[in-house]
Amino acid sequence: MAEYTRFGPAGVPPMFRLLGATMTDVPKLLHEEGLDAFEYQASRWGPKPQMKIEDAQKLGAEAKKNDVRLSMHGSYFVNLSGKKEVVEASKRRLIACATAADWMGAYVVVFHTGFYGLVEKSFAFKNALTALKEVSSEMKALGLKVKLGPETMGRKSQVGTIDEILSICKEVEGTQLVIDWGHLHALHQGTLKKVEDFRAIAEKVEQKLGTETLKTMHCHFSKIEFSSQGEKRHHTLDEERYGPDFHMLAEVIVDFGLYPTMICESPILDVDARKMQATLREVLESKHQKSQP
């Protein structure tokens, strides 16, 4: 089966809600727009799945029918580097999300790893790594096939630099690399300014985790506003004062022969997802024409 870059929104697009669509309507509506990925938002979940197994299975069936790849964004209330009771509660939330994600056939649960707090960064990271290994082992024992997707983060207070995420993916079984390009841009104060900046990250991923991991990245993208401490808010692709520029990432996707799943987190979810899709097609066509004799 041919692999290709997929595009879709992080959550239900506003227009779908205005139309009165149910969650099981979403895959069909996305398919009609030409999109083929959807990230279900479980960002407010507690220690138990907050959806019925029947509803999850219906969503999964509709996604499969309409060729929409499902992912899930797990609970925001996760801190795997905090106090013992906080870590244990966080692990329960991740397992709850993974359980429901497995019901619906999602391939990855994206999540934020934790915070440094008042401890040394290396100590916080090691705590998070240990906790994730425990979560991975429990998921395996439960027979859950969905992958854990630690995400690169955009604030200086958060565990989730590119190097930390690469280390987690290398050391924890059953993980999926998740790169949020807006977060990386914000964390490093607008560092993604040239195609070469995106290329350097791709090369680092390939060196640390291999070509296949690079090719199959799960990605978040939007333009982003930031302060000295990192991420502030997401913006639309048309807001020129903010970065990064998706066209630059599209060039790297084409040059490296990648086929990531691209999830749009801009305020106009499906609209900007389609714009990213169109940009990638333009870059593909341009490079194809230049390669012709």
Description:
This protein is an alpha/beta fold and 293 residues long. Helices cover 48% and strands 16% of the residues. The chain has helices at residues 14-18, 26-33, 53-65, 84-104, 121-142, 162-171, 181-187, 195-209, 211-215, 246-256, 269-291; strands spanning 6-9, 37-41, 69-73, 108-111, 114-115, 147-150, 158-159, 178-180, 218-221, 223-227, 230-235, 261-264. The strands form four sheets. Strands 1-12-9-8 form a four-stranded parallel beta sheet. It has a four-stranded parallel beta sheet with strand order 2-3-4-6. A two-stranded antiparallel sheet has the order 5-7. β10 and β11 (230-235) form a beta hairpin. It is globular. The model has no long low-confidence stretch (mean pLDDT 96).
Which features would summarize this protein structure in a list?
single chain; 293 residues; alpha/beta; four-stranded parallel sheet; 11 helices; 48% helix; globular
Fold blueprint:
Layout: E1 6-9, H1 14-18, H2 26-33, E2 37-41, H3 53-65, E3 69-73, H4 84-104, E4 108-111, E5 114-115, H5 121-142, E6 147-150, E7 158-159, H6 162-171, E8 178-180, H7 181-187, H8 195-209, H9 211-215, E9 218-221, E10 223-227, E11 230-235, H10 246-256, E12 261-264, H11 269-291
Parallel strand pairs: 1-12, 2-3, 3-4, 4-6, 8-9, 9-12
Antiparallel strand pairs: 5-7, 10-11
Helix pairs in contact: 3-4, 4-5, 6-8, 8-10, 10-11
